[in-house]
Design a protein that fits this description.
It is built from 8 helices and 11 strands. It has helices at 11-23, 34-43, 61-70, 86-94, 107-125, 155-166, 174-182, 193-204; strands spanning 3-7, 27-31, 49-53, 77-81, 99-102, 128-130, 133-136, 141-144, 150-151, 210-213, 217-220.
Length: 221
Amino acid sequence: MTKILIVEDNKTISKNLSRYLGLKNIESEICESAEDAELLLNQNNNFDIILLDIWLPWINGDELLIKLRKNWNNTPVIFLTSRDTDEDIISGLELWADDYISKPFDYEILIARINSVLRRYKKRTNSEIIWEYIINFDKEEITNKENNSKIFLSNLEFKLLAFLVKNRWKVLDRATIYEEVWWNFDDFQLSRNTDIYVWYLRKKLWADIIKTKKWSGYYVD
């Protein structure tokens, strides 16, 4: 099920929108300020898309988006705002927003825009993710962006890395990783495969992108 974060300080708009999304089988949560949204996203980054008002109390939506992108949070964002001049729209899109919808808006058009953004995002994440490395999920290749050299991983190493990257910033416990990568939860208690293969990846990758959260598991930064 698609999960959407609505960042909107107008309670009438946010509640009506959340209710309509529910009718379309889309789960949603509401934050009334950028500060609350940032806190929630730091705790739980499982949202498929963010609907973000620009005019918010204290910290505006465009400031929140800049912070998210600087922190490598690539969750798709659609601005919902009463600022509707061409200059406003261009400015919003140049801030790495994925779309821009002016208020008042038609709910059906919004749903169509959401689906369009999600299709583009899915296509992007199924092909390449770029940071220090370029990962091609279709070809199961990883390349160092600086010198264009290939990094050779075994099938299991690539599968583990891909799972961590696709759940970027989310702490994954060893049991969840083991079940996803090795498909056999029954052997989990007797296996150290997850720790061993994380060690393999750390040796092969130049940047220490796989982090450990004590007593909890692993995540990609």
